[in-house]
Batch of 3 targets.
Target 1
Amino acid sequence: MTIYQNLIAGEWTGADAVENINPSDTKEVVGLYASGSAADTKNAIAAAKAAFPAWSRSGIWERHVILKKAGDEIMARKDELGALLAREEGKTLPEAIGETIRASQIFEFFAGEALRLAGEVVPSVRPNIGVEITREPLGVIGIITPWNFPIAIPAWKIAPALCYGNTVVFKPAELVPGCSWAIVDILNRAGLPKGVLNLVMGKGSVVGQTMLDSPDLAGITFTGSVGTGKRVAVSSIEHNRKIQLEMGGKNPMVILDDADLNVAVEAAANSAFFSTGQRCTASSRLIVTEGIHDRFVAAMTEKLKSLNVDHALKTGTHIGPVVDERQLKTDIDYIEIGRQEGAKLAFGGELISRDTPGFYLQPALFTEATNQMRISREEIFGPVASVIRVKDYDEALAVANDTPFGLSSGIATTSLKHATHFKRNAEAGMVMVNLPTAGVDFHVPFGGRKGSSYGSREQGKYAAEFFTVVKTAYTLA
C-alpha cells in the first residue's frame, strides 16, 4: 500500500507510517500516512522560515491564482474527497460532501480577499505629514487542527494564512490525515513555491510539541481540547508568539413555551446529534421551559427513534459512528456518569451492531438533568444530550449562560421580544434563533467567549486580525 508522505520544503518525504482506520468498518485501512519526527518538524519550520521573505512579498495575483485553483479542484472532486472524509472520520456522506464544498468556498473567498488587500491613508494632526496604515504578513504560522472537521478547519486556517503572505507548518490530527494530505497535495500542484506550505503528520507529543518549542513560529492557530489549548498558550508566552485558540463548548439550546415544536425538535436534534455530536458547536444542553417540556421530550424521543445509525457511506444513514474506540469509551463513561448523577436516560445510549464492525452508539437523551451535573458542565463530544427543565425565559437565559464555555447558543421561540433579548444577552460568540447551534457561513467570523476561544476570530475578513500585523508609516511631504 502506498505511503502518503509529509511535504517538507517542496519534497515528499517519510518512510514511517501509521494506518488510517475507517470507524464505520474497522477492517478497512483507508491508507498509510507518514508519521513525522521532531527532526522532520524542525526541517519544516526551517523551510517555512526560508520561504517567508519571498512569499511575503509575492504578488496578489499569484496568491489569488493558487488559492482559486485549489478551490476549483476541491469543488470538482467534492464527491471523491467527501467519500474520503466519511471513511476516515465517520461523518455521513452528505455531511462530508457538504463540508468539502465549504472548504472549496473558503479557498474561493480568500482567493478574492487576496485581491482586496487594502490599507488606509489618513492625515496627521501635524502639518505636511501623511500617514499610511497597512497590514503585513505575520511570519511562519503553525497550524494544528482537530479530527472532527478534517477538511473545513484546515481550509479556514491555511487559506487566510497563504492569502495574507504567511508561510505554514501544518499538523493535522492523527486520526484524520487523509483530507489534510489531499489539501496540501492540491495546493502544492496549484503552484505554491517550495517551503511555503509544509505538512508534518504525526503524534501531537512529537510534532506538536516540537512546534510549541520552536522560537521561529510567529503564530500558532489551534483548534482542539481545552487542555492542549492551555499548553499552546503557556508555551507561546515564552516565545512572545501570537496565538489563536478554539477549544470547544457546552452549548445551550433554549426551548420556550411559545416555540414551534417541530422547529424546536429539528433544531435540537441537528444540534445535539448530527455529525455524531462531534462538533464544538453541538448543543448538549437542551434547556426547556415547563409549559412545553413534556411535549418536547416526547417529540424528541420520537425523532431519535427515526434516526438511523449506520455506515457513513450507506444511503439513509443519519448518524455515523463515533470516530474511534477511545472517544466511544469517553461517551459510554459519561452516559454512566449521568445515570450515577441522577439523570434519567430517556432514550438510547446503547452500543449497537451493524453489518460492518464499527464504533456505533445509539444517541443518548437524558431528562431530569440539572445544570450542576458533570454531563451538563463538561464537553462530552459525542451523541449525548441532557434536557434541563426551567420555569421561564429568565431562568433559561441564566442557565444557558451558567457555563465556563461560550461558543454558540441557540433559542427556539416565536417571540420577537425574547429572540431579541437573547441575541443581546447570550454569553456566546455566536447566537442562533430557531436554527441549530452548529453551522456558520464561510464568510462570517467564527469564535466564542470565555473558555471556548482565545484571540481573534477565524473566517471571513476577520481572519486578517490574526494572520497580519499592522504597520503605521509617516512621510514628510
Target 2
Amino acid sequence: MESHWLSLFDVSIDFGQSNLFFPRIVTWILVVLLGVILLTRYRHVVPGIKNAGRVLAGRSGEFDRKRFFGTIVLTTIYFYMMGELSDVFPNTGYSFLICSIVFVLALSLLYIDHFSRRLLLIVVLNALIAPTLAWYVLAQLFRITLP
C-alpha cells in the first residue's frame, strides 16, 4: 500500500507551460521592486511622471521625438525579426544573437550626439561583445532555449 505522503515527491511537468515558469518569477520580482521604488521614492517619482505627461502631450519643448520614436521602432523591429529568424535557426539562439547585435548597435548609434572614431569603436565592440556574452551565458552555460 502506497502512502499518500509519497505523492508529495511526485513531479509532473506540463511542458506546454514550463517555458512560462521563469518569466513569471521575473515578472513578479520586477512588480515587487517597482512597488518598493514607488513607496520609497514617491516624492521623486511623481514630479517625473507629471513632467513626462506634459512632454508627451506636447506642452514641453524638451521632447526628443527622434530618439523616442526611434527606440520604439527599433524595439518593435527587434522582436519581429527575432521571431522571423527563429524560423531560420530554430532553438539555437542564433536569432537572439544576431538580432541583439544589430539592435544594440542601432540603438547606440541613435543615442550618440557627436561621432568620433574612438566612440564608434566602443559602440561596435559593445554591440559585439555584450550580446555574445549574454548568448553564451544563457544558451551555452545555462542551456536556456533562446529564440
Target 3
Amino acid sequence: MFREQMQEYVEVSREIVKVIMSDNAAAALKKSLDWQETVIDSLTETENQAADLVRDILSVEEEVAEKLLETEETMQKSSSKLRQIELELQDVCQKNESLETSIKFLKKELEEVKNMEEEIAELEKEVREDTTVVIPSALYMAKLFHSVTKIDWDYNCDSTLIKGIHYGGEIAQPICIDSTQHSQIFICDYLWSLLSTEW
C-alpha cells in the first residue's frame, strides 16, 4: 500500500514537472525533482530497514516463545519431581517415627531385662550366702545319712520302687519296697525299724 502511494506520488510529480518545464523555471524544477528522488530513495531504504527490523523482531519473538515453552515444561517436570520427593520424605519420616517408637520400646524392655538380671544376681548371691551358712552340702548330708542308716540306695530303679542294701546287721539285707502297694506310714516305720538303737 505504501509502495502504491509512493508510485502515485512519483507519477504526479513527473506530470507537474512536465507542466512546469514548459515555462522558464527548468533549473528550479530539476533541483526540486532531484531532491524529491533523494527523499523517495531515503523512504524506500527506510521501508526496507523497517521490514528487516520487523523480521528480526518476529524471529526474536519466536525464539523467546520457544524458550518460554521449554522453561514451562522444565518447571512442570521439576514440580512433579519435587512432589515425588516430598512424598518420599513423608514416608521416610513416618518410618523414622515408627523406628524411634520401636527403639524406645526395645530400650525399655532392655532396661527391664537388666533390672531382672540384677535382681536375679542379687537373689543368687543371697541364696549362695544362705546355702553356705545355713544348709550343709548335699555330699555331707549323704555321708551323714549313710553313716546313720547304713543303707546304699539304688537311684537308677523305677520311681515307684524303693531299693537299696542295708549293711547294719551281720548280713547285708536288700531292700525292695513297691510304694504303690504300701502306705507311706508303713514304709517309714519299716525303714526306721532297720536302724540300730545302739550308739
